[in-house]
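Standup notes, structure subgroup. Blocker cleared on the coproporphyrinogen III input:
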Amino acid sequence: MRDRFLRACRRQPVDRTPIWLMRQAGRYMPEYRAVRERYGFLQMVKTPEVAAEVTLQPIQAFGVDAAIIFADILPPLEGLGFQLTYEKGEGPVIHNPIRQPRDVAALHSSDPRETVAYTLTALRLVKRELNGLPLIGFSGAPFTLASYAIEGGGSKEYRLTKRFMYEQPAAWHDLMERLSQLVAEYLIAQVEAGADAVQIFDSWAGALAPADYRDFVLRHTQNVVATVRSRLGEAAPPIIYFGTDMAGLAGELRQIGADVLGVDWRIDLDVAWAQYGYEHAVQGNLDPTTLFAPRELIAARAREILQRAGGRPGHIFNLGHGILTETPVDHVRYLVEFVQSFPLPAETPALQEVMQ
Ligand SMILES: Cc1c2[nH]c(c1CCC(=O)O)Cc1[nH]c(c(CCC(=O)O)c1C)Cc1[nH]c(c(CCC(=O)O)c1C)Cc1[nH]c(c(C)c1CCC(=O)O)C2
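Run returned:
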């Protein structure tokens, strides 16, 4: 059953719980570091043969149940006019961030089929090598992209982003509309290039108060999902929406229209699933730091997650956020084998029913 990841996204029964890991291709792998020695990170992303090779590394090393295209959420912003570099130890830097409404008006309109053609080519190359194993395409979500575009890099408090949102609502919504269009077009292009599912990374949306998510973000996230669905029709793939620290946003997440919702480790999987509603599949939710712990603890935590999922169709095992640099490779292999050999528990009653 090579399509068990896609079946789980659609909440269809599977022979065992599928597993893949966010950021599964990365510096914790010696094979990745060997390639990275010869290229800069952006150069790897922009060279389709290299991006394809690196995408396949965790498939070959661990036999995970899905591939995710090797790329990053920020390169699509270059087409709008942002200057992007990755600095050692600092992560991404945008050198001309948005500071005023006129910076939004001055953004270029861009067609991701041209500006991010390298990732579309990489998807086509990888697809040929996968023998039917599902391939995941992805994009940053409008809010998380806007936060990088405004802060110019990572942030703890998102002060500039929130101030811009509160003080310049018209320019904010203009920026979010431009980003939503870019994201939707980019996801559609990835599906046309061979992606079987798409994940929208809203890594930092958990920094928002629910009222701010509702007033400044929700409609744009909904537009992305609705546009992908309506333009692709029957060919629309499962759509995964992922964020961290989202436990307080359940009511909003339910309205996005995604098929699958990501769950981080700050909430028990069954509690999150009951709040998100069983019409969604869920993906998660091991703390990535657990992979540094002894094997017995990794097994105990993974077992608990699988038991909390309760054999209900629609659970995809993953970490609650991307795998960390320096994670021991043999612990990753151990986790994948543990999950893949875990017998699916007989379906337990829904938490909602138990609590009634
Ligand atoms: C916020 C964000 C980014 N990028 C991404 C997100 C959303 C997911 C999340 O919240 O983790 C998404 C991403 N970035 C990368 C992937 C590849 C696919 C995968 O294997 O999951 C994916 C899905 C590769 C990468 N993206 C980056 C690397 C490391 C680059 C290197 O080799 O130096 C990789 C493998 C760089 C990057 N890119 C970004 C940061 C903050 C950094 C620096 C942090 C770091 O160095 O780990 C932005």
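Discussed briefly. Residues 22-27, 36, 41, 68, 70, 72-74, 86, 91-92, 138, 154, 201, 203, 321-322 surround coproporphyrinogen III (CB under 6 Å).
Next: hand off to the docking folks.
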